[in-house]
Every structure is written in structure tokens, then in C-alpha cells.
Design goal:
The structure is a single chain. By secondary structure, the chain is of the alpha+beta class. It contains eight helices and 20 strands. The strands form six sheets. Strands 9-8-13-10-12-11 form a six-stranded mixed β-sheet. A five-stranded mixed β-sheet has the order 15-14-20-17-18, with helices on one face. Strand 17 and strand 18 form a beta hairpin. The chain is elongated, with a radius of gyration of 47 Å.
């Protein structure tokens, strides 16, 4: 088309020049001048073509996201390799972490309901070791490190692709991801699960509370990946993997030092040792074992006071302390004259943990009191006359 227009234009121009050059010829007709470039552009515009080539979209294509949890996903969980698999576990706490909501983790189970979606069924949905859950239609969802409310919100968004205004509810069926061990003198020792940000005495209460034999201290062992224990006497064990500390039960329970009621972390080991005892047996009114509580020792007279004193038949001058030697483990007898102690003629003697104070019975006193008791019983049967 362009070639034809150009040739016509060239031919007409030459003819006009020839007619003008002939002498005596009539004036040549005037034709409009055709601009080849303009004609070409108009022709292309009429045919719908353009000279401008398509330019590539400058917006880069986003790289595909990895559904697997990273080493630190910023949601309270980190991953590590175990037997060639990536396994999620609780992330060590950072400064400023707060909130009482339970953080989901591997091996927790969820009850999930969506209105008008019967495919979900009634069975709980377990969170696998990688922190994921597989749901009908939407597939795999990463749940570890989220609260129940956060997961509920995410499922609501995901199910909008299939349902209009989906109504989603999520609740915990079982806790398994944040275990702690409570050992020793509690009523139900064993492995328990943290529910939210629980404190030390909250988890002890969930273990049934302290038993009657509980001592006055609690020992806590924590993995250092969760930070050192926030207690003034906390020390690292020789392996450098654990933080260990003791705290006083009475100081927390009496509110003298409530700051020792610290938050617990996953995999904490809480040990409540039995109280140290001293024993008082023999001719006393209330024989038995008596706790030392916060003291390292107890005196003989203090132990007798707890035993409610001596019987009338007691041979107070021949009492003995039975003590186990720490080296030979043999039982050693230490004579004590309780009678002189009570009269103030002899200093009081200390009893150590597991000591036994034995107060023998006087045979002569026992025979005398048996005779007196027989007379009293006989006398009660005699008639009393009044003048």
C-alpha cells in the first residue's frame, strides 16, 4: 500500500513538471501534496496497528513462599532437624514477651467447626511435629506459634474462597506441646501441660498441691535456651545447658517474697523434696516424726514440746539420741539426760535431720503406777456413806 502511494505521488509530480515546462500549454491543475510519512501513519492507525512494541511488566514476579517453618518464624516457635525431619518446638522467650493466651504447638489437638462444611467431621485435628494441620479443601495450615484466636481468624480468611461469610470456631481438645515435670512431695507428681503463661504455684496447684511431707524449698531446673531462671541464686549446671535455683516455699506463700512465684517455661523440672524430720519415740505423749521446716536442726527440749511432753513413767535421765554416721552409716547412740535439761542443770542438745530421740520407760515407775491404777479402779466400786 505504501509503495503504491509513493509511486502515484512521484508520477504526478513529474507530470506536473512536464506540463509546466511545455510552452503555450494550459495551466496545469493543482493537486494537494501527499506526505508519505503522514499517510503511512494514518494507514496504520486505520488498520489498528502501532509502532510501539509491548513493554515487559516492570513488576517482578514474587518468589514462591515456603510453607515450611523457618528457623525462627517470629510466631513463638523455631524449627530444628530430628531424624531428617524439620520439627517445631517452642521458641526461647525474648524480652517483652507478654500475654496469657495459650500458644499452639506440635501434638496439640484442635476441635474445628465451620458452619455448612460437614467435611470437617467431629474428630479432633492434631498438629503434626512440623506445626501444621491439614484441613479439607484449604489443605495445610501452619498452626504452631499461633493462639487459638489467630488460627481461627486465618481459617476464616482461607475458607472465604469456598463459603460466603464462613463462621469458624476453634478450640483446644488436648494439650501436649508444652510439658513440664513436677516431682517429689506433691499429690499428683508427673508430667503436666502449661496452659497459657502459668506461674510456679499455679502448676503446683494443678498437681494437687503440696503433700504433708513437703519440705520448705523447691528446686527448679530450666533449659538455658529458654533463658536463665529469674532468681537471685540461679546458677548454671556444669554442662552449661541448664539453669538451677532453689526458692523458699514459705516466703512465697506468706507473701514475703512473691517475686519468687516465677512463670514456668516448657520442659521445666520442678522438684519438691521431702521435709527433713526428727523422730521422738518411747515414753512421750505424742510419739512421731516432726518436720524441721526452715531450720537445719531442732533441740531436744523443742522436740519434747512437739511430742507434748513426757509420760509419767518416763526415765528422763536415760534418754538417748540415735544418729546415723554419714561415713560408716552405722547407728550411733548419744546419751542425754533430759531430766537435768528440764531442770536447767544441763544445756540443751541439738537434733539433726533424721535423728531419733528415744525416751525409755522406768520399770519401777511403771509398776507403781499400775498398782495405783488398780487401787483407783477398786475404790470406784466402794459405797460411800455420809453421816
Amino acid at each position: 500500500m505504501l509503495v503504491v502511494i509513493a509511486c502515484v505521488s512521484l508520477f504526478c509530480g513529474n507530470a506536473f513538471a512536464f506540463q509546466q515546462s511545455a510552452p503555450g500549454a494550459a495551466p496545469a491543475p493543482v493537486f494537494p501534496t501527499i506526505d508519505i510519512k503522514t499517510a503511512a501513519q494514518q494507514n496504520k492507525a486505520a488498520s489498528g496497528t502501532t509502532d510501539t512494541a509491548a513493554k515487559p511488566d516492570p513488576t517482578p514476579t514474587p518468589a514462591p513462599t515456603n510453607a515450611m517453618p523457618a528457623k525462627d518464624n517470629g510466631e513463638g516457635w523455631v524449627s530444628y532437624s530430628a531424624d531428617g525431619k524439620t520439627v517445631a518446638k517452642p521458641k526461647a522467650p525474648q524480652d517483652g514477651d507478654s500475654g496469657n493466651a495459650y500458644i499452639l504447638g506440635p501434638e496439640d489437638s484442635l476441635n474445628v467447626r465451620v458452619v455448612h462444611l460437614d467435611e470437617l467431621g467431629d474428630a479432633p485435628y492434631p498438629i503434626d511435629l512440623r506445626g501444621n494441620v491439614n484441613f479439607p479443601r484449604i489443605g495445610r495450615v501452619h498452626a504452631a506459634g499461633k493462639t487459638v484466636e489467630q488460627l481461627e481468624s486465618e481459617l476464616t480468611q482461607r475458607y472465604r474462597e469456598y463459603l460466603q461469610d464462613p463462621v469458624v470456631s476453634v478450640s483446644l481438645a488436648e494439650f501436649h506441646s508444652q510439658p513440664i515435670s513436677i516431682l517429689g512431695s506433691v499429690k499428683t507428681p508427673g508430667v503436666h501441660q502449661i496452659k497459657g503463661n502459668s506461674t510456679l504455684f499455679e502448676v503446683i496447684s494443678e498437681a494437687g498441691g503440696l503433700s504433708e511431707a513437703a519440705g520448705s524449698t523447691i528446686t527448679i531446673t530450666r533449659k538455658l535456651e529458654y533463658g536463665p531462671l529469674p532468681l537471685p541464686n540461679a546458677v548454671n549446671d556444669p554442662s552449661g545447658k541448664y539453669s538451677v535455683a532453689d526458692l523458699n516455699i514459705r516466703s512465697v506463700m506468706t507473701a514475703r517474697n512473691p517475686a519468687q512465684n516465677i512463670p514456668v517455661k516448657p520442659y521445666d523440672v520442678i522438684t519438691v523434696p521431702k521435709a527433713d524430720l526428727v523422730y521422738v519415740i518411747g515414753s512421750v505423749k505424742k510419739p512421731g516424726g516432726f518436720m524441721l521446716q526452715e531450720r537445719a536442726n531442732m533441740t531436744v527440749l523443742e522436740a519434747l514440746a512437739l511430742a507434748q511432753g513426757l509420760e509419767r513413767t518416763a526415765s528422763a535421765g536415760k534418754a538417748k539420741i540415735l544418729r546415723t554416721d554419714e561415713i560408716t552409716h552405722a547407728r550411733v547412740e548419744i546419751p542425754v539426760d533430759v531430766k537435768k535439761m528440764m531442770e536447767g542443770k544441763l544445756g540443751d542438745t541439738s537434733l539433726l535431720a533424721n535423728d531419733i530421740l528415744f525416751v525409755p520407760t522406768s520399770n519401777s515407775k511403771a509398776a507403781t503406777y499400775r498398782a495405783l491404777e488398780a487401787l483407783v479402779q477398786t475404790g470406784t466400786g466402794i459405797a460411800i456413806y455420809r453421816p
